[in-house]
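User: My collaborator and I are trying to settle a disagreement about how two of our proteins should look. Neither of us wants to argue from intuition anymore, so we agreed to look at predicted structures for both before our next call. Could you fold the first one, then the second, and keep them clearly separated?

Assistant: That sounds like a sensible way to settle it. I'll keep them separate. The first protein:
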Amino acid sequence: MLVYYAHPIDQGGEDSFYWIPEALNSRGVVVYDPAAAWRVPVVNRPRPGLQQANLDVLRRCDGLIACLRRDIMSVGVVLEIQEAVNHDIPTLVFGPTLAASWALSYLGVEVVDEPEQVWHWLEGLR
């Protein structure tokens, strides 16, 4: 199983979800982490190619786990969630600090706040 791990990258801040890829690997899941896929100099100007490459990988995944925190804005994670929904890729948002989201509800995306719920969702993909 291949899961895309969407999490805030481009807006900086502490990654409180650092443990998720390793936990997924320990359960036999292959994880695509866009933050680990690329090394980009800070001085570079953003261009669409990098995001296009990530979305190409996403379309080949069995599922997407998106991690969001209410105190970190992330445009990329939102785009990745929409892309997964558009391609009928099972999507779960792990957001322990998120408030209710009308937009995610509209998309039919489940939001969970406990790691056990993530593992239960994964079992449903197998």
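The second protein, kept apart from the first:
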Amino acid sequence: MKKLTDKELTIMEALWEHGELSIRDLMNYLPEPTPHFNTVATYVRRLEVHGMIRHRELSAKFYLYNAAVAREQYVNAIHKENVNKFFGGSYMDFISNLVKEHDVSIDELKELIRMIEEE
């Protein structure tokens, strides 16, 4: 799955949050300074080419766009890619790194183990 740029991710976040939108409507959810309509349209086309979004044609010049990939699906794919790229596919090494960097506490690890045991 394509790793998104910050601008592409912002567009995807708007679609995940608000559902089907036209480009004009989408622009209302983008941070200031809002890019030009043509710039947003270019990003939307790129995302569509990569299979991240799809459109529904309402008329010859009016389309509504929505996410073709769920947020969770994208996040999981990026996590897996990063674990493969930086930790040789080892989730143990990944979690170990989080613990070493104090990004995850022992209590959080215990909670994670409890969640896994309940599954």
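Some points you might bring to the call about the second protein. The beta strands are 53-59, 62-67. Residues 89-119 form one domain.
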